[in-house]
């Protein structure tokens, strides 16, 4: 079974010729705050997200000559169906809120807005960035320990 990291790498390699020929290629990866700071998701999950961050930076160095940009966003807990069960645990939700300066989980539109921006001409000089979309969680050094 392929990991998300392996899938991202292989898909990027397949797409690269098309991105290169377009003259304005752009890749936006999804990571996690777990790739930046310790979180309750565990060491292996955090390591794979950290590797996704590094893949972003390496591809920028390899593909900038082809005018292909690559960025990554690192969300915290997005209020989606995928995490509603976890956030439904009142004790866990209280921990998340206590470690998030904006005092709430993020909404999907807050993440999608960043992705849209990274795909626009307005961000044409933004590349190689790992952008936390986390309500300040990483600034607070989010950890359950």
Please give the CATH architecture.
Answer: 3-Layer(aba) Sandwich
Number of domains: 1
Question: Which structural class is indicated by helix and strand composition?
Answer: alpha/beta
Overall CATH class: Alpha Beta
Poorly predicted parts:
none
Largest sheet: 3 strands, parallel
What does the overall shape look like?
Answer: elongated
**Helix content range:** 40-55%
How many angstroms separate the termini? 31 Å
Secondary structure tally: strands: 3
Strand and helix order: HEHEHHHE
Describe the overall structure.
It is elongated and about 50 Å long. Helix 2 links the parallel strand 1 (25-30) and strand 2. It has a three-stranded parallel sheet with strand order 1-2-3, with helices on both faces. It has five helices and three strands; from the N terminus they run H-E-H-E-H-H-H-E. The model has no long low-confidence stretch (mean pLDDT 91). The longest helix has 21 residues, at 43-63. The chain has one domain: Rossmann fold. By secondary structure, the protein is α/β, with parallel strands linked by helices. InterPro entries: NAD(P)-bd_dom_sf, SDR_fam, TR. This is Tropinone reductase. GO terms for molecular function: oxidoreductase activity. It comes from Actinidia chinensis var. chinensis (Chinese soft-hair kiwi). Keywords: NADP, Oxidoreductase.
């Amino acid at each position: 079974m392929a990991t998300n990291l392996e899938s991202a790498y292989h898909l990027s390699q397949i797409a690269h010729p098309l991105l290169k020929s377009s003259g304005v290629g752009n890749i936006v990866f999804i990571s996690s705050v777990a790739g930046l700071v310790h979180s309750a998701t565990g060491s292996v999950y955090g390591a794979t997200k950290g590797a996704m961050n590094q893949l972003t930076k390496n591809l920028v160095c390899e593909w900038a000559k082809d005018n292909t940009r690559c960025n990554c966003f690192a969300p915290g807990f997005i209020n989606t169906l995928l995490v509603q069960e976890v956030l439904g645990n009142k004790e866990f939700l209280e921990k998340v809120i206590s470690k998030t300066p904006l005092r709430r989980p993020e909404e999907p539109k807050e993440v999608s807005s960043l992705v849209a921006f990274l795909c626009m001409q307005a961000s044409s000089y933004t590349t190689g960035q790992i952008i936390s979309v986390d309500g300040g969680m990483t600034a607070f050094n989010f950890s359950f320990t």
